[in-house]
Write a structure and sequence with these properties.
Elements: H1 2-19, H2 26-32, H3 42-65, H4 74-81, H5 92-115, H6 133-146, H7 155-166
Helix pairs in contact: 1-3, 4-6, 4-7, 5-6, 6-7
């Protein structure tokens, strides 16, 4: 983590040097004219460079602290969609995690609603009034609990399987 942080800091400094003017020196003050102004004094240049560097490091630090999620398998998605420890007092990390889960489900359902027009046979039939991402999340977790052997399949396949299981076109939707 420290090496990654050092690389980000070094990259920030390199980028910063490209955009800020050079500090005042005897030579460029002479070139700037009699009044000695070259657009930015040495002190102002140092303040600008230090402030920009501090902001870049702070941003990089917060970006590194944010959790990342790789949603390749059903097990990965189940970990992100798992029930919170205490539903009444969610931590910030749980909010983020469940937000990622909800976004994945909404994206999947949005894609399915567009692409199903080109399908000859539907894998599942959602009710006309729609279905909430929370209901899909609970259904998905229930399927993986009952059939843990499918957890290593791709996440989108496990999600589609859970929807086919709960919202079969041949029977009434699951509750």
């Amino acid at each position: 983590m420290s090496t990654q942080h050092d690389n980000i800091r070094s990259s920030c400094l390199t980028q910063l040097d490209r955009f800020l003017p050079e500090p005042a020196t005897a030579e460029n003050i002479k070139d700037a004219g009699q009044d000695g102004r070259n657009g930015m004094g040495k002190t102002m240049w140092l303040i600008a460079k230090t402030s920009t560097l501090a902001a870049a490091i702070a941003f990089a630090g917060s970006a590194m602290a944010a959790p990342t999620y790789s949603l390749q398998t059903g097990a990965d998605l189940a970990a992100v969609c798992s029930n919170p420890g205490d539903a009444k007092t969610l931590t910030e990390e749980e909010r983020q995690r469940l937000g990622v889960c909800g976004a994945y489900i909404q994206g999947f359902l949005g894609h399915y609603s567009v692409s199903r027009r080109n399908m000859s046979k539907l894998d599942f039939c959602l009710p006309a009034e729609g279905v909430s991402a929370e209901n899909v999340r609970v259904l998905f977790l229930a399927l993986l609990e009952q059939r843990p052997q499918i957890r290593d399949l791709p996440a989108n396949l496990d999600l589609a399987t859970s929807l086919a299981w709960g919202y079969s076109c041949d029977k009434e939707p699951a509750e």
